[in-house]
Design a protein that fits this description.
The complex is a heterodimer of chains A (172) and B (844). With 172 residues, chain A is of the alpha+beta class. In chain A, 21% of the residues lie in helices and 14% in strands. The radius of gyration of chain A is 25 Å and the shape is elongated. Classes of the chains: A alpha+beta (172), B alpha/beta (844).
Chain lengths: 172, 844
């Protein structure tokens, strides 16, 4: 007898769950019109950031490529001049490529970067119809310069940007 | 180098204990070296095993104790267990300046020592910029490595007090100095002083203001400058060639050889795939590879920087070209080779092959084989003779210039050794410093004279006469000798030098091509061979004749049966078909350009479109030395192998393979697949190379100093040699005979006499594609004597018109005050039409 009552209770419990779900709204959203916000620590596609004055933060040191466990990053450096300055200091990345098919979005590149140039953003919309489209170049990755800043390369006063890496401050 | 670590020197052994490991090393060894020998690393910055110790950086501080000796009995005191009592000093001592002693105990693992290392590093880092991310040394930097191994994780100094200095100082056109990064170890200045003998950089001021400056104009004027970047323990000195080229860990390494001169320096080519180059593999830098019998751990700047001629740029040939309607147009390999074979077939015995001296032995073997099979001529593009003599009385197996020392002698005749073969200059200079008698015979002043015991001057053209006079000074006087020789024999210096030569334990004779054409070179080589035979300096290691060839693999060319032509213009002009490989006669001389035009059918095989190729009927491309396998034979008769570093253009092969494909169409079977296959044939058919195998060439031995192996702080960034030290050929067994020839009287001219000289930095096709060297390449010039310049009222640096062999060139006039009146120096490979001594007219 107790067995029968137990079965009915379980059945009712199940039916209640179905009823409850049926009264709730849909969990799906109308992507791409509607986009769900991502979590704070979400790691999406990379951006190369700039300083406020428009100069690129990336100095082409290739440490991101060295840290990358998937060998997805390729960097080539060239030398800055004061007439054609891309970044502070002597060196900038003349080629910067990330193969998004290889990238596992681990964020090690972000950790390795000495100038916080590369950051993983919240963009996850990367689909390709061709493998070569998966290579994101420097131009695609670079943030646009702020409206009040000049784009790179900039012509600057000689000797005004001779440090590649912001000076270290004494710990408090 | 201290005496103790020199090879083949018998010394007494000293027993000591380092970090509880007992070790026996020769007396005089330094504590750091003794530790290194048993694999214990005592960290160093300023110490370098090739330089004298200075003890400046204090990084090598260790606790050193000596056994206590009872003053009365003179015996070592022992404790109750019978172990010797060790007295440690109160302070730590620098391991790089203390020599080992019997019973010494060295301790490097105690807290006291570790603390000292930490403190030294903390001090060094107080003013180091820590811009490792953009530093070319980052990743192969001793300061980085030692900080990780021995440094503190924090600093007690105030960051704001770091001094700010210039970070972008062009010390010379090839070397950049970053003043902030310098840790003032003086390795670079000591290298320039002790090893290169070009003290053009030095310390200025003292304390925190101390900095490296250059004293020369132009800055850092030394052909050895690149080596300072290897031994710099930080990124203070970097090359412009590699500036920001790649991070060291991204580079691949391939063993190669320098193809610029007959020394055959071992190199490592560092390559990387490059987006800028369209995704191709690119040679990013050339680094020395340790071979203590050839180049030690050094490389001259030409070897380091003049590698761009092999780069895949627009100037490279990528496919065959065939002349159609007067123009060279692209053709398929099939068509081009068929045409070449058809014409060679038609030429019969009228085939002339001319081979350049930077080809590998395999190329030369196949070329000579083709010419021989067709009954044609196999010529070598060289203006020096004597390859047959060096095969008989050259250096034999087991020779090493580092073994020359007290009681030995080296004669350098008709050769500006530093310009013609820089590493040999360095090693002969070191022999002089070890006590060897160096005799320099040259008509003008050369750098080696600073280290010469005897400096002999003669008139250009009397090279052979002088060497004969050296023999004459100890052999019975021969009345039939020409007056010039008689006069030289009576010269006191010649007499003394002759005695030094006769009494030398080991003798090596270097002869070059200063002022000689082919005929003079033949006479000189014969005279040098006579000197060696006459004094019994043959058939033993460290004795014999070394030709300072004008081409890297001229020795290989002679060994493979090619010979320079006595009259190249006539031979080429009369050729029914000419097959010119890796040589540019038309570019060398207008007279030869005419001869190439006169030749029946001209096939040129090269990596770039040379002046000769522009005149050719068919141009065949080949792979550059960076893209292929092969062997070279150095002037010391060491056979060494190079390996491909980057892939060749599609369809391009080594020269031997192209030759073999032509040969196959003519019914001559040759190996066309593998260079090692040709090498095996050489080993089977060329007597001197008998029994050689690729495996033998790849053998390595333990070398001192120990470098590479993850401890870049000891020897610098020079590469460890894991790919082979090469094999020195034995000399042929026949006992060579003395063949005296009457030294010819030098040619006399009505006007000024021009003599050819070799400059390291010339304007040849293998140098000019390297833009990094351009600021150091002189323009075309001639050098006049003071008297002639005065007579013609020519100022130094003035532009003049020089006419040689009917060709007029505008050149800059230099003045050399060691030059005799009536003689004009005309450098080779500067567009001047000079092959041997000839008449020159100079007009303002």
């Amino acid at each position: 007898m107790a067995n029968v009552i137990g079965s009915i209770a379980a059945l009712m419990n199940g039916m209640w769950t179905v009823l409850k779900q049926g009264l709730e709204g849909p969990v799906t959203v109308q992507y791409p019109e509607v986009k769900r916000p991502v979590h704070r620590r979400f790691k999406g596609r990379h951006f190369l950031r700039r300083y406020e004055n428009g100069l690129e933060r990336c100095i082409g040191c290739s440490l991101c490529a060295a840290a990358c466990p998937a060998d997805a990053i390729f960097v080539e450096a060239s030398e800055n001049t004061d007439d054609k300055r891309y970044s502070p200091g002597e060196r900038y990345a003349s080629t910067y490529e990330i193969n998004m098919l290889r990238c596992i979005f681990c964020g090690y590149c972000e950790d390795a970067c000495p100038t916080q140039a590369i950051v993983l953003g919240d963009n996850y919309e990367m689909s390709f119809t061709d493998r070569s489209q998966a290579i994101y170049t420097r131009e695609m990755l670079l943030d646009p310069a702020a409206p009040d800043a000049r784009p790179t390369p900039q012509k600057v006063a000689p000797g005004s940007f001779d440090r590649s890496i912001p000076d270290m401050k004494d710990p408090d | 180098m201290t005496d103790a670590v020199k090879p083949n020197v018998e010394t007494t052994l000293v027993n000591l204990t380092i970090d509880n490991v007992p070790v026996s090393v020769p007396k005089g060894t330094l504590v750091v070296d003794a530790a290194k020998r048993i694999g214990i690393d005592i960290p160093v910055f300023c110490y370098h095993p090739k330089l004298e110790p200075v003890g400046m950086c204090r990084m090598c501080l260790v606790d050193i104790g000596l056994p206590a000796v009872n003053r009365e009995t003179g015996k070592v005191e022992t404790d109750k267990q019978g172990r010797p009592v060790i007295n440690f000093g109160r302070a730590l001592q620098t391991g790089c300046t203390v020599e080992v002693a019997e019973g010494m105990v060295v301790v490097g693992y105690t807290e006291k020592v570790q603390k000292a290392r930490q403190d030294v590093l903390e001090f060094l880092l107080t003013s180091h910029p820590l811009d490792c991310p953009i530093c070319d040394k980052g990743g192969e930097c001793p300061l980085q490595n030692l900080t990780m191994a021995h440094g503190r994780s924090d600093s007690r100094f105030i960051f704001d007090e770091k001094i700010k200095l210039a970070k972008h100082v062009p010390l010379g056109e090839m070397i950049f100095l970053d003043r902030e990064r310098c840790i003032q170890c003086a390795r670079c200045t000591r290298f320039q002083d002790e090893i290169a003998d070009d003290p053009v950089i030095g310390f200025e001021a003292r304390g925190r203001s101390l900095q490296i400056v250059t004293y020369s104009e132009p800055g850092f004027d030394s052909i050895w400058s690149g080596n300072t970047t290897d031994i710099c323990p930080v990124g203070a000195l970097t090359t412009t060639d590699f500036r920001f080229g790649a991070r060291p860990w991204e580079l691949q390494a391939s063993a190669s050889l320098c193809t610029h001169c007959p020394v055959g320096c071992n190199t490592t080519l560092n390559t990387r795939r490059e987006a800028k180059a369209g995704g191709e593999m690119v040679v990013k830098r050339v680094m020395p590879r340790q071979n203590e019998e050839v180049n030690e751990i050094w490389l001259c700047d030409k070897g380091r920087f003049a590698h761009h001629y092999a780069a895949k740029d627009d100037g490279r040939l990528t496919g065959p070209l065939v002349r159609r309607d007067g123009k060279l147009v692209a053709a398929t390999w099939e068509k081009a080779l068929a045409l070449v074979a058809e014409k060679f077939e038609g030429a019969g015995k009228g085939l002339v092959t001319l081979a350049g001296g930077k080809l590998t032995n395999e190329d030369l073997y196949n070329l000579a084989g083709l010419a021989k099979a067709r009954g044609g001529k196999a010529l070598l593009d060289s203006r020096m003779a004597g390859g047959d003599l060096t095969a008989q009385v050259g250096l034999s197996t087991g020779s090493n210039l580092a073994d020359l020392g007290k009681g030995d002698a080296a004669l350098v005749v008709a050769c500006d050794l530093e310009e013609e073969a820089p590493l040999w200059w360095l090693r002969v200079k070191q022999a002089a410093e070890r006590g060897a008698t160096v005799i320099v015979a040259n008509p003008r002043r050369t750098k080696l004279e600073r280290h010469a015991a005897f400096t002999l001057r003669y008139e250009y053209g009397h090279e052979a006469a002088l060497v004969t006079a050296l023999v004459g000074s100890f052999s019975p006087k021969r009345a039939d000798l020409p007056a010039a020789v008689q006069a030289l024999i009576r010269d006191k210096d010649v007499k003394d030098a002759g005695q030094a030569i006769a009494g030398a334990k080991d003798l090596i004779v270097f002869y070059g091509s200063e002022g000689t054409g082919l005929a003079e070179s033949a006479a000189l080589a014969r005279a040098c061979a006579n000197l060696l035979i006459g004094t019994g300096h043959i058939g033993r290691p460290n004795n014999g004749l070394v030709a300072v060839w004008d081409k890297a693999n001229a020795q290989g060319g002679w060994d493979m049966g090619l010979r320079p032509s006595a009259d190249l213009a006539a031979d080429l002009g009369a050729a029914k078909a000419a097959y010119i490989v890796a040589a540019d006669p038309a570019g060398d001389s207008p007279a030869l350009a005419e001869a190439v035009k006169a030749a029946g059918f001209v096939v040129v095989q090269d990596i770039r479109l040379s002046a000769t190729a522009e005149l050719a009927d068919v141009v065949l491309p080949a792979a550059a030395f960076t893209e292929r396998d092969g062997t070279f034979t150095s002037g010391e008769r060491r056979v060494q192998r190079l390996h491909p570093a980057v892939p060749a253009y599609a369809g391009l092969r080594g020269d031997f393979a192209v030759t073999a494909q032509i040969a196959a169409r003519l019914g001559v079977a040759q190996e066309k697949r593998l260079a090692t296959g040709v090498f095996n044939q050489i080993a089977a058919s060329v007597p001197a190379y008998a029994g050689l195998t690729s495996a033998a060439l790849s053998e390595v031995r333990e070398q001192w100093p120990v470098i590479g192996r993850g401890d870049v702080y000891y020897g610098g960034t020079t590469y460890d040699n894991k790919q082979g030290l090469g094999v020195q050929l034995p000399v042929s067994g026949d006992s060579p005979a003395l063949t005296f020839e009457q030294p010819a009287e030098p040619a006399k001219f009505k006007g000024l006499k021009a003599v050819p000289v070799t400059r390291l930095y010339d304007r040849g096709t293998t140098v000019t594609p390297s833009a990094v060297l351009h600021p150091r390449l002189p323009g075309a010039f001639i050098a006049l004597s003071v008297e002639d310049a005065d007579k013609m009222k020519i100022e130094p640096g003035q532009k003049v018109q020089a006419t040689l062999n009917g060709v007029t060139v505008e050149v800059e006039a230099h003045i050399d005050n060691s030059l005799a009146q009536g003689v004009v120096l005309a450098p080779r490979s500067f567009g001047l039409a000079i092959e041997g001594p000839c008449e020159i007219t100079v007009k303002k």
